[in-house]
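G., before I forget:
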Amino acid sequence: MVGELVTQLTSPSFISHVVATVLALLIAIVIAVAIAVPSGLVLGSVPAVRHATRAVIEFLRPIPSVALIPLALVMLGFGPETKITLAVYAALWPILFNTIYALDELDPLLVDTARVFGTGRMGVLFLVALPSALPFVLTGIRLAATTALIVMVSVELMAGSQIGIGYFIMEARSGPGRMDQVLVGTVVAGTIGVLLNNGLERVRRRWVAW
Amino acid sequence: MSNMLEVADLGHTYGDHEAIGGLSFTVRAGELVCVVGPSGCGKSTLLRTISGLVAPSRGDVSLHGSHLAVVFQDYSRSLFPWLSVQGNVEFPLRSLPRAERRARAAEALEWVGLGGAARKRPWQLSGGMQQRVAIARALAYRPSLLLMDEPFASVDAQTRFELEDLLLRVRREHDTTVLVVTHDIDESVYLGDRILVLSGSPARLVADLEVPLPAERDQVTTRTDEAFVELRSKVARLLNVGKPTMDVEKWAAAERESLSETVSS
């Protein structure tokens, strides 16, 4: 299997599968952050919006992303947009809820301090609430990245794509039945998860070490 | 001397709890006034209404200057942990050009003896140093009035003396008008040009005392000065006067309540 790992890691076609998955994953995480953080800031700081949207959120959140795969395939086809959309959906929740939670935990004294120095509502949101929420948001992103990877590989496995690490595993299993290649695919998928997790943890320690 | 702050018939009620019951006083420009009162008497509410964080239920607060700054007791929760020491001091100066902001922050940090700590994060400093950062931030803002809420209550005794002397020095050097809220009688006498003594809840003004001590003070000699000792005793007596009456009132109210319960059942 080690020999097969070396062979695959030097094979351009395998590398392109890995790159496809990682790239789609990164795009999904960026989109999820761009949606979930602003939404979390609004939901966390305007209780009226939070109450109004509670029913919808409580309905959508428990739906397993994987259960949405057949529907997404029908609606979005077999291109990368399907796996990205589903990964975004899965990644949204941990980031959103961590952002809301962070705003609940915002120290009122920090807000008072900003206010006595003439900071308005928007200033408090962007100069105090957002930076103070950052550690929680980053933890949310770290959790979301792992979930997004699971969903992404799942979609690829279910033929929702013609390229990607999941597709590679699927091909190796169904065609020649190469279990060594299946294992290589699995190990590499796991390694992507570990690297992503450690990378984000390092970012957190480097930039938000308080 | 002109008045910097005028407080007229200021009152505040939370629900049915009256925290402040009609306070009137003034703070003159350049003066350091200490507000002393028993714990939980509404001192913090007073500070919050003056600083504009809370709109008072009644009465007026007028500041004859552009803006004020506040130093809170809990320095560790009042400094922004994601900003450097310099970033914290620059926070109130956001509207100024970058170069001026830098210069004013550096200057204020020099005043409090923290010129070398500008790049550190607040949580890398000791408690006393963190409170000095908070003081530097307030001074860099060049406030017409500096409000301080129990500013030295969370540091050890040694640091407290240092910070008290630091406050006396910077307000003398920069002619800052200061209002310090404290529960510590000794501190109010040591720091103040004037002391406002408050009663227990709801806070009312019991006495407005001039401090007959020279501007130059010293932790050892001032505290043994006859005038210091005399004034400290006087404030202590004033603060204790309020207590028994309050307790008697509470006791009487409880008794009336239990009596009415007996009658109704």
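Chain A touches chain B at residues 107, 109-110, 112-118, 127-128, 131-132, 134, 208, 210 (CB under 8 Å). The mean pLDDT of chain A is 91.

More on Monday.
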